[in-house]
Amino acid sequence: MRENPVIAVDAMGGDFGPSVVVPGAIEASRQHGLHILLVGDTPKVECELEKLNLDNAHYEIVHAADVVHMNEKPSDILRRKKNASIQVACRLVRESAADGVVSAGHSGATVACGMFIMGRLPGVERPALSALLPTEKNPVVVLDAGANVDCRPYHLFQFGLMGDAFARDLLGYSSPRVSLLSIGEEEGKGNSQVKEAYELLKMAQNLNFVGNAEGRDIFGGEVDVVICDGFVGNVVVKMSEGLASSLMRMLKRIFTSGLLPAMGAMLAKNAFKKFAKTIDYAEYGGAPLLGLKGLAIVCHGRSNALAMTNAIRMSGAFVRKDTNARLAETILANEELTRFSRSV
Amino acid sequence: MRENPVIAVDAMGGDFGPSVVVPGAIEASRQHGLHILLVGDTPKVECELEKLNLDNAHYEIVHAADVVHMNEKPSDILRRKKNASIQVACRLVRESAADGVVSAGHSGATVACGMFIMGRLPGVERPALSALLPTEKNPVVVLDAGANVDCRPYHLFQFGLMGDAFARDLLGYSSPRVSLLSIGEEEGKGNSQVKEAYELLKMAQNLNFVGNAEGRDIFGGEVDVVICDGFVGNVVVKMSEGLASSLMRMLKRIFTSGLLPAMGAMLAKNAFKKFAKTIDYAEYGGAPLLGLKGLAIVCHGRSNALAMTNAIRMSGAFVRKDTNARLAETILANEELTRFSRSV
What we know:
2 copies of one chain form a homodimer.
Chain A: E1 6-10, H1 18-32, E2 35-40, H2 42-49, E3 58-63, H3 74-80, H4 85-94, E4 100-103, H5 107-118, E5 128-133, E6 140-143, H6 153-169, E7 178-181, H7 192-203, E8 209-213, E9 225-227, H8 230-255, H9 259-267, H10 269-278, E10 286-290, E11 296-299, H11 305-320, H12 323-333, H13 335-343
Parallel strand pairs in A: 1-2, 1-4, 2-3, 4-11, 6-9, 7-8, 7-9
Antiparallel strand pairs in A: 5-6, 5-10, 10-11
């Protein structure tokens, strides 16, 4: 835990690279008192820095020469691209030169480098990607959002514990309602993986487990944490993004299809903007990979500067609140249950 | 195949029972030349019939005395409620007194009675519930939408074959783009179940397999059939329903939050209605359980009369086009591949 967290930012990541990441990171430093390590190609990073107001910004450049392509396999990047910005950034955390990493680059590579370079917290079986989704009320945490497919029931169990710690510390929910994504509300509904995880979650220490949630419950805001296998979670997150964009496009088409609707849309312009802001992923920053010795936050490839600033701010809060200590505690308190389940 | 299909309608099913099902069924008969067997409690059905215009309607009442409760297990209903309307309806198909069944009742019971009373078409491993979802372009078929959890790869393979036959015959797509729901577009992305199913689908006879689709692709309208495990499919279908309703409620709240937005909403009232109609499940009727000797269509519990009419119309088209013959053909043409995969 540090008063002034040091965040290593993958300056080369994302669809727009340094042109978006560097201003987002500098803004996070200025607004939130964070020390930023800009990891990437020095000349390119410098070129972006020249355009910015750097008053009150604390930063250094850490050079990283290798370039990662989006179609490369995470395992290949891990093995062959020792000087890729994401690898260099994760090593800074391992060597205690930084507290966390934020990247909008290749998400598979960020997950792999986080897991294998930083390593897992003691007792954590599988780190989990934790996505924040907007709902009618407060944001909901969905985990795992894609780091682990083919999960065992005790993995889902630990996702619940980690999601709880995250929702308490970072979202300020006092007793997060933790739910298990299934295909019916009643106990006993679901596939074999979910049914076994249900049994474990019921017995968990210090967890407000509220039972199964169905797909239709996610966006009503009646639960705070939704646990699922990484395959299902990735489908859920991508689908919610896709459906929201599709609905917005359909609405737009209808509102531009005639004079009256067009006038209506003009009058309601600000209301529309407010709505778009509510469902904008940029407001939420990124998805933390929970369970690491340190922290890695995976941002959307399309992230704009605001999304980067928000993700870096979140990583700062994570360090200041020492969320990893809370996470390790709850994992430890439930260690026997995990071990028992793993052995059967 | 009959010119005038006979459809057994579960008159007692759904949140509103005969008051909605009977008028929906009579309308389907009048508009689409179908012969309807109204299966349920005779006095209750008669009471609803008295309120209706029955010109050109062809129907009979088939009495069924048992009442099914929503919290009963499908297996218990199958074993103990021999005179439940859904059981009686499925027996009518088995005895060739009807061609198909439509029910808005207990969906688990409909699936169980369909599978065990009607039985499967030769070669079909698992019948699949096939939901139609609205997209920006044409509706997409998602299957399995919840009849089978814990699927094997060759189950997914057969879902693709059945979805293709359905999309050709019932939706009129000439060469349906069949996709496999996964967490990345490239081959090799997904869990082990999906990766193995991919291999089979690539080798399928007479199938336009276009590879993986991600959650975000479903609603853009770029694919026509989406294959997934019943657990995932059920989450997808319920989530799309929940998210669409949540977004509509959020929009409504924003549009009633001030004078200008409210005036805008008034001007755009018809546009809104058109939008709501586009995403209204009632326009799509119900989800057929494909792969049976006969047909069972599962309707939403909240179905209104229009949804019932549409579902019954769909079952009529299914019979008239003899979709089961097409389905049996494609299953047979791919039998060796299925058998090979099952044996490994």
